[in-house]
Amino acid sequence: MNWRRMPLGYVQANAYIWKNEHGECLIFDPGGEAQKLISYVKEKQLTPLAVLLTHAHFDHIGAADEVRAEWGVPLYVHENEKEWLTNAELNGSARLIGNGITVKEAEKLITSEGTLQIGSFTLEMFHTPGHSPGSVSYYSAEEGFVISGDTLFEGGIGRTDLVGGSQEVLLQSIHNKLLSLPESTLVLSGHGDETTVLTEQEQNPFINGFSL
């Protein structure tokens, strides 16, 4: 297994570290506890190439500044949420925890779906809005996983009562983008344990019975 799940921050949102055979890695959704994450990466003697966000809610961005400053790497976020990084009202921290969490602007804005190449890492990026307008999912066919953020969970789906949320759009994203992946694909969610596309097709009560 070339990836590691690490729950971090206020609500233990899942950060993911994906490494290759050269000791390089990508870091997804560093939500908090920057020193815990940095210490792990250094202990494993990994060299980060980038920080990628599935979306810009506070619990997924909290350690982004410290991590990218440590290694001088860029931060990727969808263009629909570029302002959320610096706005505590948009990213939910002002409302949900009463403590404004913001980070610096992203160096890289994701503007369209397609292949994302970072060093030797190849990802397919899907725009999967609904939980938030700039939610994206990162798929590796070679590794057989999709990092879904807060779009799809084991037995659940993302909440849609925050800024820009829509349950109809969310379910369309899940059906059109995620459930169309191979059934054996691991779904690495923003909270909780991993699951598979097949498991969610068959058992997720929020998905079954929904028709486009």
TrEMBL record:
One of its GO terms (molecular function) is hydrolase activity. Keywords: Hydrolase, Metal-binding, Zinc. Residues 12-191 form the Metallo-beta-lactamase domain. Its cofactor is Zn(2+). InterPro entries: MBL_Glyoxalase_II (IPR051453), Metallo-B-lactamas (IPR001279), RibonucZ/Hydroxyglut_hydro (IPR036866). CDD domains: metallo-hydrolase-like_MBL-fold. Signal peptide: none annotated. It comes from the Bacteria. This is Metallo-beta-lactamase domain-containing protein. It comes from Bacillus pumilus (strain SAFR-032).
